[in-house]
């Protein structure tokens, strides 16, 4: 009888242990917008350095082209290049609706029409788990008819500690309601980087605030007895622009002499798109602009360099103008109304393969992450399958490759 009781107790213990061991891990992905890959070396970020020491860190995570906020945040959660998920820029022309998408337009931001791919929160929810987002590109639109289980409409006035506290609140929910994936976003490093440049004390202060939030997050997670893996990442880096006459490439000058009825020029500062209204004028327009190339290059859509992965989507123009790092497209009217008086400022959007300053961070730490691993430079399309692997789920066909980051996962 005693042997039978002992056997039953052992089986009960084994079942409980098996249940605990089979629990899926949790993932919290934090984005610090504009956090350049070398800020950790430039500034004394003790909490982030401790985070890196106890986990894995990439030399550089390369953003997709163009290195802008919306395309890259959405690439991180779809595993697709912007060319394939359709959110090709912060502002772009959509010929299908003959309208412009802009990150400032609430109705467009919340319209699922603009978003392709399967966001990671939907993938998680399709696999029987819940997901939460405290601000992330795409999370406010019912993509495929579905939102994250928990989400907030973007409001950058929400105090930063309140966002971190929400992570703890979600993880303290009853198991059935608890999200296994949480994304959380902060903009202050990007904001200061734009206004003052990446080397300014104001940008350093923003980086140090990010560091304190990492400290708050990791200290709080110690009190929550769950297997939580944390990813610290960003959408892009930042380039310091110099106020010199040659910095300003005036679009009016290279478009001069062309009939504006034949095309639409969409200026995105670090690049520009030309949509032909009169296809018969294609060679004339291309040759006229190519003759005035200086610190930029024009490509016909079919000839856009393969390295950019940016030449098939209908929202990309018939021609693409790519600006060299350190320069930008402007127009006379806007400069006349608001002259640039700053000596330096920050810009992103350049080709990340030609501009190292566009590189972003990727650090991972947690019970399922190997300690002290250095990751070679990689592209941000590979983050999506990495998260899926941590959560034990498969992905649909994507651009990202699960093999790229699987080496940092503990078996």
Automatic annotation (TrEMBL):
Signal sequence, renumbered to the chain: 1-19
Q: Which UniProt keywords apply?
A: Signal
Stored Pfam families: Phosphodiest
Keyword Signal assigned to the entry: answer is yes
What is the protein named? Ectonucleotide pyrophosphatase/phosphodiesterase
Superkingdom = Bacteria
What are the leading ranks of the lineage? Bacteria, Pseudomonadati, Bacteroidota, Cytophagia, Cytophagales
SUPFAM superfamilies per the record?
Alkaline phosphatase-like (SSF53649)
Keyword Signal in annotation: yes
């Amino acid at each position: 009888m005693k042997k039978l009781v002992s056997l039953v107790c052992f089986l009960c213990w084994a079942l409980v242990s098996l249940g605990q061991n089979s629990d899926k891990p949790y993932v919290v992905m934090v984005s610090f917008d504009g956090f350049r890959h070398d800020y950790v070396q430039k500034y004394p970020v003790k909490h982030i350095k401790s985070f890196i020491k106890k986990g894995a860190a990439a030399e550089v995570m390369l953003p997709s082209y163009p290195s802008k906020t919306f395309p890259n945040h959405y690439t991180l959660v779809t595993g697709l290049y912007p060319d394939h998920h359709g959110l090709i820029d912060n502002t772009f022309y959509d010929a299908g609706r003959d309208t412009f998408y802009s990150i400032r337009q609430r109705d467009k931001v919340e319209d699922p029409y603009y978003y392709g791919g399967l966001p990671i929160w939907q993938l998680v929810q399709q696999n029987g788990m819940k997901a939460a987002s405290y601000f992330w590109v795409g999370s406010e639109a019912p993509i495929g008819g579905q939102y994250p289980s928990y989400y907030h409409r973007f409001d950058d006035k929400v105090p930063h500690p309140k966002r971190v506290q929400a992570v703890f609140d979600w993880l303290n929910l009853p198991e059935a309601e608890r999200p296994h994936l949480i994304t959380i976003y902060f903009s202050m490093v990007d904001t200061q980087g734009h206004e003052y440049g990446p080397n300014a004390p104001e940008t350093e202060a923003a980086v140090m605030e990010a560091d304190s939030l990492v400290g708050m997050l990791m200290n709080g997670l110690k009190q929550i007895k769950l297997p939580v893996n944390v990813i610290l990442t960003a959408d892009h880096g930042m380039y310091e622009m110099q106020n010199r006459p040659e910095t300003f490439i005036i679009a009016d000058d290279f478009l001069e002499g062309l009939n504006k009825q034949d095309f639409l020029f969409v200026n995105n500062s670090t690049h520009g798109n030309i949509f032909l209204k009169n296809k018969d004028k294609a060679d004339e327009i291309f040759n006229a602009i190519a003759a005035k190339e200086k610190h930029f290059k024009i490509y016909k859509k079919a000839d856009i360099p393969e390295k950019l992965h940016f030449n098939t989507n209908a929202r990309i123009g018939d021609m693409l103008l790519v600006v060299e790092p350190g320069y930008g497209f402007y127009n006379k009217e806007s400069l006349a109304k608001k002259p640039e008086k700053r000596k330096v400022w920050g810009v992103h959007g350049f080709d990340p393969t030609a501009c190292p300053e566009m590189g972003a961070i990727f650090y991972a730490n947690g019970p399922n992450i190997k300690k002290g691993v250095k990751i070679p430079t990689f592209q941000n399309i590979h983050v999506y399958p990495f998260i899926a692997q941590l959560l034990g789920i498969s992905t649909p066909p994507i651009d990202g490759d699960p093999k790229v980051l699987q080496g940092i996962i503990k078996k």
